[in-house]
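Why do we care about 3D structure at all? Because function follows from shape, and shape follows, mostly, from sequence. That is the central idea of this module. The next example makes it concrete: a single protein chain, its amino acid sequence, and then its structure expressed as tokens.
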Amino acid sequence: MALKSITAAITAAVVGAAASSQAAMVDLSQQDPGSVFGSPNWSEEITRTIDGDTGNFGAGLFRLNDGIMDILAFCIEPEAFLDLGQTFDTMITADPWQDNFEAIDKLFTSSYDQVVDAETATGFQLAIWEIVAETAATLDVTTGNHSALASAGAIAAANMFLAALDTASTGGYKFTTYVNDGQDLISVSPVPVPAAALLFAPVLAGAAMRKKRKA
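And the structure:
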């Protein structure tokens, strides 16, 4: 099969798989019936204040299933409760966070790969809420319109992720948003490498090895 035909076939398969998994309306369920955070549980109980209202909440990485596959998701609607009993729309965005989407994109692109445990997942969730809910010019989860009390590690991670926004780029991930009358959620997957690049990768690697041997 010619290279062009192989590339076209791979591209079609990738596009087809993406289309089948991005249905407009989906029902989400817990991977673990005992907790929306699943196992391993990457969350903490935190105290959060928004607009002067204070409450205790779980904050971290949701482990859910969209009816086809398991997904990892974060909350992007800080002033609502998660409602898994209501169908989610994956084709729309919703106020108030859509105006902050570029900053959310930068957050994932610069820092999502650093989410590796409960502290960093909690910090990442706090950073999302800070982007959405903070009205002050400075983003800091310990002060302002949105603030939180959590473990020292989670607070440090949140503010480190937020500080990275100043020099962050966008476009590192493909986004799926899940919207209903409860919490809106966001899940990401890495932007795929172009099919042609995948085909040439072994060739380039082999060339690099041969060059190294000659050196």
